Amino acid sequence: MNKIFLILSVFVMHPAVHAQQNNPLSLEECIRKTGNRSPLNRQKEISRESHELRLRNLTTGWYPAVGLNAQASYNSETIDLSGLMENPPVSIPSLPLDQYKLWADVNQQLYDGGLTRAQKTIEKISHESELQLVETDLLAIKQQTNQVYFSLLLTLKNRDILQVSLEELRERKNIIRSGVDNGVLLQENLLSMDAEELKLEQRLLGLDLSRQQLLNTLSVLMDTSLSENTVLAIPDEPARDDGPSRRPEYSLFEMQKLKFDASRKLVSAAELPRFFAFSQLAYGRPGYNMISTDFHTFYTIGVGMKWNFLNYGNHLRQKKILDLQKSTVDIRRENFDDQVRLQLDAEMASMIKYAEMLKKDSQIVALRKNISASSFAKLTNGVITATDYLSDLNAELLAQLMYENHGILRLQSAYNYLLLQGKI
Asked: Within 13 Å of residue 319, how many CA atoms lie on the same side as its CB?
């Protein structure tokens, strides 16, 4: 049974593994999965749920407020009307010393000066600000994903170049070994190439470890498993977009300013009078008829107003504080604009620099290939030593690495530019 399950597992897993090997992983897919699968998205759901609950709490301010109260008391003395006249024609009862009352208060708000409406507006703006803060954090994670992707792409590209160089070195080492065995070349030449082979293998080992670490990092960011055989696609040249920036920070700045405006309206609403209706239904003794000694029901209904019109200029000062705080938002936005502009200028300069360097790199690579091929011919003829040849070979390898690295770094700068604009 276990063998059958194992065989079925292999057949089920094989198409997925095969598809992963045949379909290179793209930068767009990495960024998309990073944004969709980030734990920060759960923060959005929590924020939405909290927002709905707070709005409901504010809405209940218009619901009737009902309170139930009870009271029992014993007094040392009470009202005695028997001394008001001598020999009264009727018996005047004295009020009992013990008193009991059970009552319910009902209050209904009629007008609050727009206080609840202003509070709801502030709550909605606060919720939108929380969502924009999450988008800001997600953008930082996307930038991290972009950095890891291109670092991994550089690692894989460098490894491919070193692997090709190692195989080429081994083929040429066989030619040198044949020359040594025939007594045409010295043994030291072969030993030098053995040492160079070990150096290349060592560099490949370091790149393999870096690749594994970067793959693990990318797996965590994407919340998925990436195999060691994952192939990365070289991103296409992105289209330049000179439209307005879509950074979430700009929306956040606007939300902060709107919140200060709404807070100002809240202060204004607090200056207005409030009207309310009230009622009280009670059972006990005595009631409003103080001379009644029987338990009975009684009630009160009415309307009222509350207006704290004397605030000693506190509201004016509070509005001034809000205006000052609102002006600081413009200052922070201006500083943010400067920082983003500096970063965009740096990325643009990098794109131009690497584009110019690539033009020279292609020429350098062609020259270095010719030089190393000529050196190898001299080595096989015993004109130069293996050390001289390896020096030229390393120069060719370095030129190839620089060419590939500059091309990838130029692409990385182009995508960094779009990310800084919030357009990815």
From this structure: 11
- pLDDT of res. 130: 94
In angstroms, the CA 373 to CA 176 distance is 14
The single residue listed with the structure tokens 């969502």 is: 131
Q: Which two tokens stand for residue 207?
A: 């790149």
**Contact assessment for residue 303 and residue 110, using Cβ atoms and an 8 Å cutoff:** yes
Spans of the chain, pLDDT less than 70: 1-22, 81-93
Structure tokens at 235: 């991103």
Task: Write out the two tokens for 381.
Answer: 């003829």
CA dihedral (197, 198, 199, 204) positive or negative: positive
Global pTM reads: 0.80
- What is the C-alpha separation between 404 and 269, in angstroms, rounded? 65
C-alpha dihedral, 230 to 236 to 241 to 244, nearest 10°: 0
Across 22-51, b (16+ Cβ under 10 Å) vs e yields eeebebeebbebbbeebebeebeeebeeeb
CB 332 within 8 A of CB 405: no
C-alpha to C-alpha distances, 174 to 192, 340, 382, nearest whole angstrom: 13, 55, 15
Which pLDDT score, from 0 to 100, does residue 280 have? Answer: 93
The first and second tokens of residue 60, run together, are: 């209940």
Cα 166 to Cα 173, 184, 276, 315, 339, distances in angstroms: 10, 24, 88, 78, 45
DSSP state of 114: T
Collapsed DSSP state (helix, strand, coil) of residue 78: coil
Q: Give the pLDDT of residue 325.
A: 95
pLDDT computed for residue 16 by the predictor:
39
Q: What is the pLDDT of residue 242?
A: 75
**Radius of gyration of the chain from Cα atoms?**
41
